[in-house]
Design a protein that fits this description.
Layout lengths: L11 H12 L2 H13 L3 H29 L3 H11 L7 H34 L5 H8 L3 H19 L2 H28 L4 H8 L4 H4 L2 H13 L7 H6 L8 H29 L10 H15 L2 H37 L3 H21 L1 H30 L3 H5 L8 H37 L1
Helix pairs in contact: 1-8, 1-13, 1-15, 2-13, 3-4, 3-11, 3-13, 3-17, 3-19, 4-5, 5-7, 5-15, 5-16, 5-17, 7-8, 7-15, 7-16, 8-13, 8-15, 9-13, 11-19, 14-15, 15-16, 16-17, 17-19
Length: 448
């Protein structure tokens, strides 16, 4: 790569798979399924799709438009378009929020991914019969930090390889493998006795469950968070695009693939849980299902459970890895653009600092929970809100920029949604999320 030139994706397919990999993570593999089951089944799915159309897709297209149009990382990209529109240079602080969100999220996400890495290895040897007790022993402390370090080392190594040779190459292999694993396990789960009860629980159509403020907030939040928005990942990935990409079409492909994995994950998880009568072990958290109830199901399956359990946690690990490399790339790209660092130095320094920050989450699940609440409820929603206002009201001719790849989509409607609907929904989500976030922070301080 010539000095001063910016890396590029080798293919449109490579970009799309990398973007889908960024969006598909541990949250898709369980959180969507759980919210669907508890939020009215089919009714929740309708809400989720509606919020994806009204909030998720507009913000996704906004990130892609700014990234490709500037060819820069978040901080420099916001400064570029603010200057072009005669706006305040303070808008670059929104880019700082994006980079900070990526830094914070990866610090604790690496710990959860470390658990997944450990469980993938343990699956082949056989899970401990007391799955809850075992998870309690390894979730925090030196073991958790050790696997966090290993996972972060792999993530750093991939990002060191660059956009095309590192991130794109891994995504081209990892994402088809993830789809194949999820579909394969879902098909296997359908053959188990008692799986029908899992489908009934997952796809119930209880409309009354969906008609409440908490469920509306959950549906809007899931549509926003599941697309990896508000953290600059999509913006950063788009900064490596050429001008011939049809951004509206590619936004729709990314959102559809993301939803597909999330929906299929429910067809995989709930039949397994119900087939072995473990529904009482499932709480309202990712941890309760992924690291306690499902390993217990795999134990009940005997020898077959080792293979199915291994494949399941490998699928989770793939989703975690593709999300993690996008988060690290946000920080690395910002260091390269803002500080003039070479990729190797940026990846090593940023990755090492993020790993060290994750030590707090590795030694305390309470700290991990607070980091998650602050990042998701404040940083991401606040970042998405700021971005919608910037593109909708400040940026000069965003429609023209989005059309650069030849799109003929309804982009005037897109601007209308960014100006009015998206801010309204995100303010609503932010307002209803602050109390629980504040409560989590105060509880952590009280415990310490």
């Amino acid at each position: 790569m010539a000095a001063g030139s910016r890396e590029q994706w080798n293919s449109k397919a490579g970009f799309i798979l990398a973007a889908v990999g960024s969006a598909v993570g541990l949250g898709n593999m369980w959180r969507f399924s759980y919210l669907t089951a508890e939020g009215g089944g089919a009714a929740f799915v309708v809400l989720y799709i509606a919020f994806t159309l009204v909030v998720g897709l507009p913000v996704l297209l906004a990130e892609l438009t700014i990234g490709r149009g500037s060819g820069k990382s978040p901080i420099q990209a916001l400064a570029h378009f603010a200057h072009a529109a005669g706006g305040s240079p303070a808008w670059k602080l929104l880019g700082v929020v994006f980079v900070s969100a990526g830094f914070l999220i990866l610090a604790y996400y690496g710990v959860i991914a470390g658990w997944t890495l450990r469980y993938a290895g343990e699956a082949l040897m056989g899970f401990a019969p007391d799955t809850a007790g075992h998870f309690g022993e390894i979730a925090a402390g030196a073991p958790a930090f050790g696997f966090h370090v290993v996972f972060m080392a792999v993530t750093i190594g991939i990002v060191l390889g660059g956009v095309s040779s590192g991130i794109e190459r891994v995504s081209m292999l990892a994402m088809p493998a993830l789809f194949a694993l999820v579909i394969g396990i879902a098909v296997y789960a359908a053959t188990l006795d008692g799986s029908g009860a899992g489908y009934t629980y997952y796809l119930n159509a209880r409309l009354e469950n969906a008609l409440s403020i908490p469920i509306f907030v959950d549906a809007a939040g899931q549509a926003f968070f599941s697309l990896s928005l508000g953290m600059g990942a999509m913006l950063t990935y788009a900064s490596y695009l050429g001008r011939d990409n049809d951004l509206p079409v590619e936004s729709a492909i990314i959102a559809t693939a993301d939803f597909g994995v999330a929906f299929l994950a429910g067809l995989m998880v709930f039949p397994l849980i119900f087939a072995f009568g473990l529904q009482s072990d499932v709480g309202g958290s990712t941890v309760g299902a992924l690291f306690v109830a499902l390993p217990k199901a795999f134990v009940s399956m005997g020898a077959a459970g080792r293979i199915v359990g291994f494949l399941f946690f490998v699928a989770l690990l793939v989703g975690a890895l593709t999300s993690a490399i996008s988060l690290l790339e946000v920080v690395v790209s910002a260091a390269m653009d803002g500080l003039g660092w070479p990729r190797a130095r940026a990846a090593m320094v940023a990755g090492s600092l993020i790993t060290l920050l994750g030590a707090g989450a590795a030694w305390s699940t309470d700290v991990l929970g607070v980091m998650d609440a602050v990042a998701n409820n404040l940083f991401l929603v606040g970042g998405g809100l700021g971005l919608s206002i910037f593109v909708g009201w400040v940026m000069d001719d965003p429609v023209g920029e989005a059309r650069a790849g030849g799109s003929q989509g309804a982009l005037r409607l897109w601007i209308g949604l960014l100006r009015y609907a998206v801010p309204a929904v995100l303010v609503f989500v932010l307002w209803n999320s602050i109390p629980s976030t504040w409560k989590s922070i105060m509880a952590l301080f009280a415990a310490s």
